[in-house]
Design brief:
Length: 569
């Protein structure tokens, strides 16, 4: 609840023109860093064969997702390092360093040789650069949000920081837009061969502009005041994580809003994209158009919900977003399947697929050791081939000694093969041959090889056709985005208001990046892994459902309303 007995919050003496400069400079740099980070997510499926060649299709894709996720895993480390710098020496210096690290790491990805050239060193170097990106981004968000909030008028703090929240969508739009433009100009074959490098390489120009803009900024009023009074801290870690009064707030932030933020936002923006392209087999151009559409919708919604929180409060607006998404997970993705690929939905209902196999012959399909002999049993080859098609299946026990077999409907049977003891090349050949036989059998049974109505070009007529045919998918995706925006829009202001000035950068950044980085960044790979292990394209959704439900309870019970707090004391 709001403390109505507290004195009115103070506001810094910042002119409207200066405030616009602060918001524009902070947002411009953050847009660039989100562009850098998201362009990899947009190119994950294209880069997989270049850096993880030789692995089974499903495993290569998951390695690519995990390489995307590794940037998120290290974000809390960046939050700790740059948080301490920001609390000890100032906000401005910290996020100047982060933008330089992010920019050069992204540019370097565009120059990387592939596995065909340098073998195992290709994925190692890719992972290293993703680690540097995540490390830099760990210090970026907190610095930008705090810098803007500490300049803003108290009654407009949500509206001002809402622009920082919107930078995520603008960065994603930029990433998708550049990918789309290069893809259309070069053609699909050239783009997949070498053109995927261009979106990474053009970021060097954006880096120069962003650094120049940020060099024009001064230190925030709240930090200046703290420094003048001699109250800056050299013990940011100890004060944040060993003093219960502060640790308690960190834990509430992490297991309340931030844990939900991770799964809600990344389900809406990233897993849904993987689901459309990988599971429903909708062509990549159509998926790009859908994602650009819903992300364009999201940009003003961040500002709207952030401004709304200045009136209604941060807590009710964020809870609305969580509850809405919780209600949408399962019905939403079922609806997207029916609207996006109705032939697949119908075939799954009328012609179920069953894998009969000896359970001792089956291993967890996403064993990430990467060994050449992985998934060589008849059961593994059968389930791996089905997983790569995005088709749900049920696994039943076969008599001991019997070869694994895929049964489609009532009368189509595809006997698997065993490649145990064969060389790596022979195992790959066995998998490929079985996958081809399986795809032919699935097509005979009525399973589509791709969604109908692939986008042929980017003419107005084609775009209008896609909108008319895929309006159901776009509408459901828009509802996902509304939920994500309601949760994310007020979040920067809410987090800044939650923590004291002297440890704000450290204490705020760490739970933010654990929540979004670990729960959100790992979500696509986690959901895909659960789907593959269970044989259901929906079972993995239990992960975000459970996390969101827990976060709703914690936020409702323990999160204080903060919109009227004075953040300058």
């Amino acid at each position: 609840m709001t403390d109505t007995s507290a004195p009115a919050p103070t506001s810094p003496d910042v002119s409207p023109a200066k405030m616009r400069q602060v918001v524009a400079a902070s947002a411009a740099g953050t847009v660039f860093e989100w562009y850098d980070f998201f362009v990899y997510g947009a190119l994950a499926s294209v880069m997989a064969p270049h850096f993880f060649a030789g692995l089974p299709d499903a495993q290569a894709f998951v390695f690519t997702l995990l390489t995307f996720a590794v940037g998120f895993i290290v974000r809390p480390i960046g939050a700790l390092v740059f948080g301490k710098i920001g609390d000890s020496t100032g906000r401005k210096g910290a996020f100047l360093i982060t933008i330089l690290i992010m920019g050069f790491s992204t540019f370097a990805i565009g120059l990387l040789p592939t596995a065909a050239t340098i073998g195992i060193w290709a994925p190692i170097l890719l992972v290293t650069l993703r680690v540097l990106q995540g490390f830099a981004l760990g210090g970026e968000y907190g610095g930008a949000a705090i810098y803007v909030a500490e300049h803003a008028q108290a009654h407009r703090r949500g509206a001002a920081t809402g622009w920082i929240q919107a930078t995520a969508s603008i960065g994603l739009i930029g990433a998708l837009g550049v990918v789309l433009g290069v893809r259309a100009y070069l053609g699909e074959e050239a783009f997949r061969e070498w053109g995927w490098r261009i979106p990474f390489l053009v970021s060097i120009a954006l880096l120069g502009v962003s650094v120049w803009i940020r060099l024009q900024l001064e230190e925030s009023p709240a930090f200046k005041k703290l420094k003048e009074e001699g109250k800056t801290t050299k013990r940011a870690y100890a004060e944040s994580f060993t003093e219960w009064r502060n640790l308690r707030i960190v834990l509430i932030a992490l297991f309340g809003v931030m844990m939900a933020q991770g799964v809600v936002w990344y389900t809406a923006h990233f897993y849904s994209q993987f689901f459309l392209e990988r599971i429903l087999r909708i062509d990549s151009q159509t998926v790009n158009l859908i994602m650009i559409t819903v992300v364009l919708i999201s940009a003003p919604l961040y500002i709207f919900f952030a401004r709304l929180s200045d009136t209604l409060g941060r807590k009710p607006v964020m809870l609305f977003g969580m509850v809405l998404m919780l209600a949408l997970y399962f019905p939403g993705f079922h609806y997207i399947t029916r609207a996006g690929n109705p032939a697949l939905a119908e075939a799954s209902e009328t012609t179920p697929v069953i894998v009969y196999a000896n359970p001792d012959d089956c291993t967890f399909q996403l064993d990430l050791t990467g060994g050449a002999a992985q998934f060589a049993t008849a059961c593994d080859i059968a389930k791996g081939a089905l997983s790569s098609t995005g088709i749900s299946y049920t696994t039943l026990n076969a008599p001991i000694g019997e070869m694994a077999e895929v049964v489609i409907g009532d009368d189509i049977r595809v006997r698997s093969v065993s490649a145990v003891g064969l060389s790596a090349s022979e195992i790959r050949a066995a998998r490929t041959a079985f996958s081809e036989r399986l795809r032919e059998a699935l097509a005979t049974a009525g399973y589509p090889t791709s969604a109908s109505g692939a986008m042929q070009n980017w003419s107005f007529a084609e775009i209008a056709r896609v909108f008319s045919e895929k309006w159901g998918v776009i509408a459901m995706m828009a509802l996902f985005i509304v939920a994500a925006c309601a949760l994310y829009g007020p979040q920067a202001a809410a987090l800044v208001e939650l923590f004291p000035t002297r440890i704000r950068y450290t204490a705020m950044s760490f739970p933010y990046h654990v929540g979004t980085g670990w729960f959100g960044g790992l979500l696509p790979a986690t959901v895909f892994a659960i789907n593959t292990a269970t044989g259901s394209i929906y079972m993995g959704l239990w992960f975000p459902v459970i996390v969101t439900a827990i976060a709703i309870a914690i936020t409702f019970l323990f999160w204080p309303e903060t919109k009227d707090r004075d953040i300058h004391v």
